[in-house]
Amino acid sequence: MTFLLAVGFLSDVWSFVQENADELKEGLVNTLKVSAIAVAGAFVIGVTLGAARAHRIPVVSQVAAVYVEIIRNTPILVQIFMLYFALPQVGIRLDAFTVAWLSVTIWGGAFNTENFRAGFEAVPARYREAGLALGFRGLSTFLNITLPIGGRIALPSSINTYISVVKNTSLMYVIAYPELTTVALQINALTLETTETFTVLAISYLTIVWSMSAVIRLLESHLALPEEAR
Amino acid sequence: MSVFPDWAEPVARYMLREGLANTLKLSAIALLGSAVIGITLGTLLTIRFLPTRALIRLYIEVWRGLPILVTIFIIFFALPAVSPTLRFDAITAGAIGLILWGSAQVAEATRGAVGSIPREQHEAASALGFGWVGRHVFVILPQALRRLLPPMVGLLVNIIQNTTIVQVIGAPELLETAERQVERLTFEGQEHAIQIYGAVMVVFFVISFPLTRLAAYLERRLT
Q1: Complex ipTM tops 0.85
Q2: Which of A85, A170, A210 is facing B193, going by the closest CB pair?
Q3: Which domains does chain A have, with CATH numbers?
Q4: What pLDDT is stored for residue A221 in this prediction?
Q5: Overall number of domains in chain B
């Protein structure tokens, strides 16, 4: 009996997906698009400002520290409100797509700065000294020694930040950007197929997030530093 | 109060008395619920019994994997569709969503903390005649709690910030009260969104910054 009910429900969910395929696909594509931009942006910000923090580059390091503390200690939802609902007051009008990728990039960049700072600082000083002794300049020492080793150390925590970035794109519901959550609630309002809607929404996010966690575990064993290199 | 313009005083009073009060109340409930459920599940996860392990793992991975907003939507919109008895008001639905997410985080941290207590402690407690429950409650958990303290403070910061998500379903926490005031003033022809949302950021920063410092300090001292 329970089995039959479960099969019946699954076929309901499947016909729901087929009926709303176009909207769901649009939502999924937008979620992945915003996430991809933000992951790339957060990576660049994280490596750059993380390096500035780890090497205590004057001014940049202090500015980065202030940026990190402000973003980490205020809710991302308020940051989204600030960008979308408050900035027009001073004449800066950003559309929903811009706020969507910009807010998660700024947020992910701050957390990633900390991830990479910790990674770079964990690289033993003797490696950098060895690089300098071999005649590498400061920048090539960073690119050839600190970045490959420290980057690997920072990798698991940075992927955790990217996972949070993907989950945070759901907050774009408040600015009506048509990503998965927004689209799902619109479908729900039209069809009133609430159970099916939220089943599909939850499965979508869990598939993305669980795949990313699986990637972390694969990369961790693949890119792990040999014991003697630590 | 003359440093503040006329519009600000009633706005601030409403946001602090109604909004901040609800934010703090919600944070306290979510922290307490997450700690109790999370520590229990995390300790049970250390038992080598496959069915309980698989169930608790599933609980952790589902509620950690879903965006909190989606969890709250499921509780607020989908549960009443399943059964009319599962209808909650916005603050309760928000608290349940935050506890599901928070307890998953605590369970994972507890598993690590309990697992890090040496086996001899278990053996010594057993030799003294403690059963499984007594051994964990009186011997293992008190030691594990020390290692749990830094992640718990970190979790508190995240809980406080994530209470704003409840705004989406209209619970009158700090961000919701701020939005209501912005809308009221806009309706009256005054635009103060930057000042009001800026004030919300300042309030959260003032609460969160000392706590993140404390978490970092505890991390350094206890490890």
Answers
A1: yes
A2: A85
A3: 2-229 (1.10.3720.10)
A4: 78
A5: 1
